Amino acid sequence: MASHLAKAGCAFSKLQKKLWGVHDVSRETKVALYQAVVITTLLYDCETWTLYRQSICRLGQFDLCCLHKTAGIKWQDRVTNTVVLHICGPTGIGAFLLKAQLRWVGHVMRTLDSRIPKQVFCGQLAVGSHPQCGPVRSYKDTVKKNMKKCGMNSSILSSNSQDCSAWRSPCSEAVTQFEDERVMVLLHKRAVHKQEAQPLSNLGTWPCDHCLRICSSRIGLYTH
Fold it and tell me: DSSP letters along 139-174, please?
């Protein structure tokens, strides 16, 4: 994944002066080219990845950093990540990975039993032992966990995946619902955080949202 981040960062930096920093180009055009050039480089062959939460966070941080520069939004503007995604249009990296992986798994399940990808995906080791630190997460375990995140039962993988349209439509709806719920949770957390900070503001203190430093005035918070 480190090589994908390096290549995507190189592709993004090459277009900094020619595209991202040009004010005559519309934001929609910049986002479309960002998805076509940078995202495809970053998530190339992502259907076969076995990712942990830390890896997804690294990909998401890179994506949001690039979207901020693409949309011309600075950190001084105090724009949240959910607003940036809403302005730019694309969904988060997590939803993109879920959708790509579920579509590819459906394609593998529709292939013949003699194909090697299906044998590897559906097969199990006859002998072997788990390490003392715990078993390493396999690709099949990742797929089952992702389906559980989207509210899908893993038992339908062998039945509903045989029909392409009957498999892709529920997957798209489940991923969309997952992304909407994720955004709602983030908005709720932000609202709770602002509500907890409100009594401090009434007492004449102004807390910083980044470092939690307490300022005695609004101009002091702005200067900080």
Answer: HHHHHHHHHHHTT--GGGGTTGGGSHHHHHHHHHHH
